[in-house]
């Protein structure tokens, strides 16, 4: 069954993710996005590794843009939401939103490019990805 789009994954801020002021260190937001993408791939394909094995295609980050609107702190419950869409023959762009208690604290985009898993050369998105993202968007 395809994952619903947008796809939301809950996370709780851990103590080690905070700076000495008790605020989430900015680089950890990228980790939160990466964890959510991994969970999206798990929901769509069983796991990221299964997707790569089935298609011979890997995805690499080509562009990442984040806009910080507020800070998260230790033990905050966050919801990381991704809304992926094929934006070219070989690219998937996901809208990113991170919310805390219904308040948007971060927004942005991340663009992944499909590459041959061995040669690391750009390739078109495989049918499995196109079908899953299309079915998820329709759900």
UniProtKB/TrEMBL annotation:
It comes from the Bacteria. CDD domains: 4HBT (cd00586). Keywords: Hydrolase. InterPro entries: 4-hydroxybenzoyl-CoA_TE, HotDog_dom_sf, YbgC/YbaW. Transmembrane segments: none annotated. Coiled coil: none annotated. Belongs to the 4-hydroxybenzoyl-CoA thioesterase family. PANTHER family: 4-HYDROXYBENZOYL-COA THIOESTERASE FAMILY MEMBER, NOVEL THIOESTERASE SUPERFAMILY DOMAIN AND SAPOSIN A-TYPE DOMAIN CONTAINING PROTEIN (0610012H03RIK). This is Acyl-CoA thioesterase. It comes from Paraconexibacter antarcticus. The lineage of its organism: Bacteria, Bacillati, Actinomycetota, Thermoleophilia, Solirubrobacterales.
């Amino acid at each position: 069954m395809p994952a619903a789009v947008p796809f939301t994954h809950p996370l709780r801020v851990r103590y080690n993710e905070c700076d000495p002021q008790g605020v989430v260190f900015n680089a950890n937001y990228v980790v939160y996005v990466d964890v959510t993408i991994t969970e999206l791939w798990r929901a769509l394909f069983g796991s990221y590794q299964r997707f790569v094995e089935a298609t011979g295609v890997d995805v690499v980050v080509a562009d990442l843009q984040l806009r910080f609107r507020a800070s998260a702190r230790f033990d905050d419950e966050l919801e990381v939401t991704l809304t992926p869409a094929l934006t070219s023959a070989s690219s998937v762009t996901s809208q990113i939103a991170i919310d805390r208690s219904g308040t948007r604290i971060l927004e942005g985009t991340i663009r992944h490019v499909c590459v041959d898993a061995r040669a690391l050369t750009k390739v078109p998105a495989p049918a499995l990805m196109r079908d899953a993202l299309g079915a998820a968007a329709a759900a």
